[in-house]
Amino acid sequence: MMVGTTGRARRGGDRLLAVPDALRQRRCADLFVALLCVAGAGCDTPEEPKTYAALAPPAAAWPRLTREQYRAVVSDVFGDDLALPSQLEPDASIEGMFAVGAAIATVSNRGVELYEDGARGIARQIVEKSGRLGDLLPCGLGSREACLQALVDRYAPRLWRRPATAEERGRVVAIGLKAGTALGTDADAIEYALVALLQAPQLLYRAEVGEPDPESKGSLRLTSFELAGKLALVLAGGAPDAELIARAADGSLHQPKVLRQEAERLLKLPSARRAVRAFASQWLHLDGLEGLNKDPTIFKHFSTDLGGAAREETLRLVEWLVFDQDADMRDLITTRTTFVDRRLAAIYDVPAAVEDGYGQVTLPASGLRRGLLGHVSFLASRSHPVSSSATLRGVFIREALLCEQVPLPPSNLNTAIPEASAAAPTLKERLIAHMLEPNCNGCHSFTDPPGFGLENFDGIGRYRSHDNGALIDPSGAIDGVQFKDAVELADAVANNPNYRKCLVEKVWAFANNRRPGKGTHGTLERLEDRFGDAGMRLRALFVDVVMDPSFRRLAVAKATP
Amino acid sequence: MSADQGSGGPKSTLAAAAASRWRAVRRLDGSAPLSRRTLLRGLLGGAAIGIGLPPLDAFFDDHGERWLRDPWAPLLPRRAHAEGADGFPVRFGLFFWGNGTLPERWTPKGEGQGDAWQLSEQLAPLAAFKKKLCVVSGTRLGVPNSVPHFAGAAGILSGRPVKLAGTDHTFGGPSIDQIIAATAGKETRFGSLELAVEGNGLSYNGPNSQNPVEKSAHKAFARLFGKGFTLPGEDPIPDPTIGLRRSILDGVAIDCEQVRGKLGAADQLRLQAHLDAVRSLEKRLAKLEEDPPNLAACKLPAKPAEAYPDIEGRPQLVLRSQIMAELAAMALACDQTRVVSHWLTHPVSNVLFTGAVSGHHQLTHDEPGDQPQVHAIVLQCMQMAADYLKALDAIPEGNGTLLDHMAVLLCSEVSLGKTHSLEEMPVVIAGSASGKLKTDLHYRSKGGENTSKALMSIVRACGVDAATFGADDGLTKDGLAAIEA
């Protein structure tokens, strides 16, 4: 097992610089090692057959649907041709993960206003679109009240991810009846009943409060509907479908065999791509890309829609690796295959495969560009508006890909890096000079060397051999592994044991709306071992994560007054 | 005493006078059980019929200069908000830009009031408003500088240290705009408005609860002045759906209550926030059914374009800031809100300003020497601040202007961006808050008082009866007596 070797690997790490204060040089790395050991990830390689620490399940939660999930649930239930609200309460992010932020996210005054506005807009479209109403609710016969009751019974299970209680149904029906009286028609009644359904906290949040677990006295498990709703969001990125609802309604979803069948079934549906895209987008921080801003006088290839295109490239590669190749996830870092439109093709200096949209291309084997670390989505977003940044790129590799914590820069410190000079013309040389500052060295020697490997890509991600007139030396080392350029850096990152561990942590956090913590170390370790043994396949990891007891068990809450 | 006690006018005037009394009651009693519309509906057997009434001057004296109390006012609950001598409420504005100043070129020369002080190089763009400004210099944030930029933002705006959770951080309490809105925002359709030119702003209700900003002027216009907005003198269009919407929100509130007991303590707080927001929206919907306050300066602003695209990779900051300023000014003039924040840029913003060869944040760290480009950017920010104040000062109110009835805080999250310094914090207050704050003043703090003191003075001038501002190292019980009138 590779578990536990990471600390030692880093200790032997980047001997890039001879800095007098060796202790200070290792400050960042040591801090992280200390955290790891305290966290119980194990600082020695175990010799005997592995046992894993028992799970201490987390307390009940009440995550808010992310904006993307809200839109997906609504379009799953009412049709994907609806214009959904473009503005909603922003998601809270924890380390880029909206799924984790969801558990602490609140809703402001403005947020409630936006939900109301959104609900009214959606309901209006549903009743205005000719024929849709009839499809949604064929209730020509019977009373208006019966019709409204049928509406709630039909839509609440998917929209709220559980059936409405009699009381909840009564409230929605009463609104519909009131609207019918005030405004006159059945359509009005249905419209306002829909507005009510769409604003309910049952839709906007996921109450995961659980029920006594008959198989484990004194502990709680998610109810079958809570489990179905969670499963649908994690594996399909939206509302549970009729079959999953049926498994929840008859309670069979509690059987591990049925749960596995459902998980595997959901992962075969087209909506699984949506879920994996959501995961990748959060893991790789792709959501900020729409606002990508570059100085076009310096970067001729920049246009305001480049960020969105770059995001799509990375998501398509992830989708292809996961669904079409069932690939080892290290391929994301090392593959020469990618998907480009004409703009990205121009930046990569390869012929575009298709006239419009994105086509699959193979990057030249002789080039330095490989995998995610060669994507514009990463290279351009981890740069400044006018220049590259080895530091920002290194921080991303450390934090997002290796789950290592980079301390914040100290305050009240001159943070300027030295000017370019004849002695130090390139960014790399300037940063190395910066590292001679004892206050800066501790972290920059941790973050910058991986970034040096990518200095052959400028602030927008185009290849360059020279920086400021001087030949770039893209060599460096990461955690004791030397690399001579971006190609070797990709191998070093993909094969870093922390990459595998980190990916498991991210998927678990995405699925469970929380960071791994006390009580889940054994769980994470076991998942990581299985992930490694099974060739680092992401879909298998998703199945393992939802099958794990940590996905469905809850701690018994302490009595709250 | 008031205009509606018209003497010997024709019958229509009497009817108008009676109607105006209703109007006045509702203005003064937030919980008015019976609106004129309800009354009319009742009289007409439930049919929704709008009756046009002439514009009224219920709140103005014969010169249109006074926001008059209704003659029945003594019988009614007192208004919660601060009120100046001429009856206009005190309103709060925040103008924020990111990445600080160059303190040596920021701090004014001379101390005291009037001719005793002169604007500095970086404050020069505000020259037209010198008589309405109070510059506070020499203060420092008491909070630890634990997260560069963000600690300063939380420190100045909330008076509290950053709340840290792993690598993430949030405010430890509400920002000043929300502290004031909790009192001053009770009576208006919108408790507060958060408008941003760049970035996501820093308006916080509390930890992990940030208020979304409106970045599109087009959408801000629709929200403020679109459907539901009624100009003074116009009658609100009867809208039976408003009652339905409120009923739905009632149902949402019940749904929230039902889940409460099942949640842990932290989630119950989140639930309460949602519930409060639902109640707040119900109140705002009720406002739509009321007649608008009769304010002479309230007019429909020009409708902004759908988008103001970047030119050569540079956002049109000046134009976008100007348009947002005009929307904010009219939202205040029409009493749609009494608290506005204007987020020009944000901490660590790397936006490309006109003429700059690099992003703002990068320049603050990398530009050598005395940083001429950073200086030019600060000047641009202050020019946009001047444009902002100009929009507020262009609204006549009583014997003065809207700006005179405001306290507008101009600030950033650090002083010298290069070092993330929290010494010499840039603080400018524009407007006297209806005479509660001194103007044409440079107050230079001796010995680096806590910046929170200046914000404490502002909070109190805006009518909030607060004992303290901030917490921990940012806590203060006192304002700056020297700037209070």
Task: Walk me through what this model shows.
With 561 residues, chain A is mainly α. Helices cover 51% and strands 4% of the residues of chain A. In chain A, strands 1-2-9 form a 3-stranded antiparallel sheet. Chain A has a two-stranded antiparallel ribbon with strand order 3-4. A two-stranded antiparallel sheet of chain A has the order 5-6. In chain A, a hairpin with a 7-residue loop joins strand 1 and strand 2. The radius of gyration of chain A is 26 Å and the shape is globular. Mean pLDDT of chain A is 88; it is low at 1-43. Chain B is an alpha/beta fold and 485 residues long. In chain B, 33% of the residues lie in helices and 11% in strands. Chain B has helices spanning 11-28, 36-43, 103-106, 150-158, 176-184, 217-225, 240-260, 265-288, 317-333, 360-366, 372-393, 452-461; strands at 91-96, 112-113, 133-137, 163-165, 168-170, 193-196, 204-206, 209-210, 339-343, 396-397, 400-401, 406-411, 427-430, 441-444. In chain B, helix 7 (240-260) packs antiparallel against helix 8 and helix 9 (317-333) runs parallel beside helix 11 (372-393). The longest helix of chain B is centred in the middle third of the chain and has 24 residues, at 265-288. Chain B is globular, with a radius of gyration of 23 Å. Chains A and B meet through helix 6, helix 9 and helix 10 of A and strand 8, helix 7, helix 8 and helix 10 of B.
